[in-house]
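dumping this here before i forget
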Amino acid sequence: MAQTKNQSRKSNYLYLVILFLIISVVLLVGAFYFRSWIVLDRMSIPVALQISDHAAFKVENTSLDFGTIPYSSAAQKSINLANNYDFPVKVYFECIGQACDFLNFEGVVTLIPYEERKVVFSTIEFSNEPYGQYSGEMKVTFVRDII
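structure:
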């Protein structure tokens, strides 16, 4: 009887040690995963364009306003990004709205420490899209990148 109690205690102790190890591994993996998703900054940039029978340009540095674009034409704008940190940064671009259907851009850009880069946003070449004004919003998220 004493031997079975002793074995039972050892078995319970072993289960507790295994449970502790599993919880430790889960917490460690979770910490590394969430550490890689540290959001450094978020911004929102207005997006606008108009499809018409004539061209008109917008010179503005606070939005991605492509102006008025006629058929058989396209437009392009760019923004400058800078990583002022001593670690890599990923920049995620997500466009929301009607204007987004007409844009071409990189969804994710990785910047090494202290890198500066120009990111280009361009429109498709318009051919039979309906005339009108289209707007949207470019959400930009800067995230610490874990290599």
